[in-house]
Each structure stands twice: as C-alpha cells, then as structure tokens.
Amino acid sequence: MQIERIGVGQRMSKAVCTDGMVFTCGEVATDKTKDAFGQTQEILDALDASLRQAGTHKERILSATVWLADIKDFAEMNRAWDAWVPQGHTPARATVEARLVSATAKVEIAIIALR
Amino acid sequence: MQIERIGVGQRMSKAVCTDGMVFTCGEVATDKTKDAFGQTQEILDALDASLRQAGTHKERILSATVWLADIKDFAEMNRAWDAWVPQGHTPARATVEARLVSATAKVEIAIIALR
Amino acid sequence: MQIERIGVGQRMSKAVCTDGMVFTCGEVATDKTKDAFGQTQEILDALDASLRQAGTHKERILSATVWLADIKDFAEMNRAWDAWVPQGHTPARATVEARLVSATAKVEIAIIALR
C-alpha cells in the first residue's frame, strides 16, 4: 500500500495518508495570542485544509484527540468544536489536559479520518 | 468505504466504525464515586458493549490508550484490566497521567479494534 | 482479518498487527539512568525492532505520539528523533507533556505504521 504525505517537514508531516485513511499531526494555532476559542477555530480550519488535501472532509473523521493546556478551557474549545462538527457525523473523541510544546498554545488536536 | 457510528451525540460519538475497524471515544465511568478499580471495571464494561455493537469483541483490540488522573492509581487500574484482558490476545497499550475533563474521573480509556 | 501480536505479555503486547497496519505500545527506555536524548535513542531502536518484526520499517510510519515527562526535554528528544527520522518520509506526530508510569522514564513513544 502506498503512503502519501501532506506538508512534509524534516521532523514530521502535517498529515500522512494510506489508500483509505489519513492521520494528522497534532495541530496547534499559529496565532497564539488568541484565546482557546480562537485557537480551536484556527486548528479546525487547518484540519479542514488537511482533510481537503487528502480528498476527504470532516464528515469522514473517525477519531479526534484533544489536548488542552488548561482543562478549564474545555467549554471554550467546545464552543468552537460544536459550531464546526457535522451533526449526525460526530467522531469518537478523547479530551485530556497536557502541557503543550509551546507555552502559549492552549489547544492541540490530532485526528484520524477515512479518505 | 462506509462509516457506521454507535451512540451518536451532538459533540462526539461513542464509537465510529469503518468496514474493518472501530475507534471508541475516551470512556470514563458514570459512577465517579467509585475508586480507580471500580471506575476501570465500569469503563471496560462500556468498551465491551461498544465492541459488541460493532460486531467484535475484546480479543480483537489493537491498541488502548489509558489516561489516569493520578498515576498512583496505576496498580488499581491494572487490577481491573488484568482480570479483563484476554490472555494471548493483549493489545498494545500506553498509559500516562493527565488531568481529565471531570475532576472526579480517575481513569479514561480509548481503544482501536478490528471488527 | 487476522491479528498478529509481537511480544505478547499478560497485560499488553509490544505491537499488534493487522494485515495492513501495526500499532505499537508506548515504548519507554529500559535504561532510565540515561538522559532524554539517550532514552529516545533506545526507544527508537526498540520501535525499529518492532517494525522489523512486523515486516516493515521507519519509512512506513503513519503517526507517532510522544509523551515527555518534562516538556523542557523537547529539544533533547528531537535531537535523537531528527537523527533517526527518514527525510521525505516523516510521520504525523503529536508531542505533549505527561507524567509517565515510571518516575525515571523521561520519554514514551507509540507509533502506528503500515506493514
């Protein structure tokens, strides 16, 4: 089976695809002056872009892992998530708190989707 | 490839299935007055139910991620896990500490299995 | 679809394979007197061995999850990672901080790869 990569960097790729699936990196927002709501919106936009490049879309997400730098941001993250996630096509999800690589990143999300 | 969802909620689904695989959400116990042993038992029962709904069972689990609110509960979580996991068919597993969404949840487990 | 297991233990397996994919456990170093760089090297060697046993190799890794006991070890972990990861074939990756089961483990890595 062939592997296709999206946004190949020297350390990691933005997303990696098999014939049937796509695995994204843990996405964080570029603009870290935003609050958890704004950072989540930016992350979800980036995930939409990776899914599109893989020839798929958010109704095909299988699972999502969400890491919050502060679990108190759960409601703010969800405010962006709930507006974005397609009704009737919600993925499996796990959300936990974890210190992130960038001290100003508030949210990180990785997903697995079908192409 | 078709996607089937189990326990579809507005925010997430309990489990999401492809033709060949099933991805569960991060399961936590409903009764959070239980200790880590009891919460783990309840989670494993819920995972068994999701696997059953997906037409599969615990001998087909590929990988499990376990988050403990307090890593000191590792032995108590394992006491329930070890009694449950089928010998000769143990999944790959990773266990780390993470603050969970509910302050009274002590354990959260997500799995990926073959159907 | 058949499941093959590598390093089957009573609690977990070192890696679990489907026809097309391999899921490893969260690998930690055996020699925990090593610093984050040395522990990462040891983990990557162990992952290479599991991939080899599954009949595949590091150019076929789809995604990696890295947990650091102390996020300050990000650069040291990457020093080993960057020397190891095959250019043009980098996986999707997520790195977060988490307390690990062993208090002296500094790094834990789990991967998903194509066979």
Provide the descriptors you would attach to this structure in a database record.
2 helices; 115 residues; alpha+beta; 25% helix; globular; 60s Ribosomal Protein L30, Chain: A; homotrimer
Topology:
3 copies of one chain form a homotrimer.
Chain A lengths: L3 E5 L4 E5 L3 E4 L11 H18 L7 E8 L5 H11 L7 E6 L9 E8 L1
Parallel strand pairs in A: 4-5
Antiparallel strand pairs in A: 1-2, 2-3, 3-6, 4-6
Helix pairs in contact in A: 1-2
CATH topology-level fold name of chain A: 60s Ribosomal Protein L30, Chain: A
What is the class of chain A in the CATH system?
Alpha Beta
Strand order of the largest sheet of chain A: 1-2-3-6-4-5
End-to-end distance of chain A, in Å? 14 Å
- Most extensive protein-chain contact, per-chain counts: A-B, 27 and 27 residues
For the largest beta-sheet of chain A, the strand count, sense and barrel status come to:
6 strands, mixed
The radius of gyration of chain A is 14 Å
Just name the CATH architecture of chain A: 2-Layer Sandwich
Number of domains of chain A: 1
Tell me the number of strands of chain A: 6
Helix count, DSSP H or I runs of 4 or more residues of chain A: 2
Explain this structure to me?
3 copies of one chain form a homotrimer. By secondary structure, chain A is of the alpha+beta class. Chain A has a single domain, classed as RutC-like (60s Ribosomal Protein L30, Chain: A). Helices cover 25% and strands 31% of the residues of chain A. Chain A is built from 2 helices and 6 strands. The first copy, chain A, has a 6-stranded mixed beta sheet with strand order 1-2-3-6-4-5, with helices on one face. In chain A, a hairpin with a 3-residue loop joins strand 2 and strand 3 (21-24). In chain A, helix 1 runs parallel beside helix 2. The longest helix of chain A has 18 residues, at 36-53. The radius of gyration of chain A is 14 Å and the shape is globular. The mean pLDDT of chain A is 98. Chains in contact: A-B, A-C, B-C. The interface between A and B is medium-sized, with 27 and 27 residues.
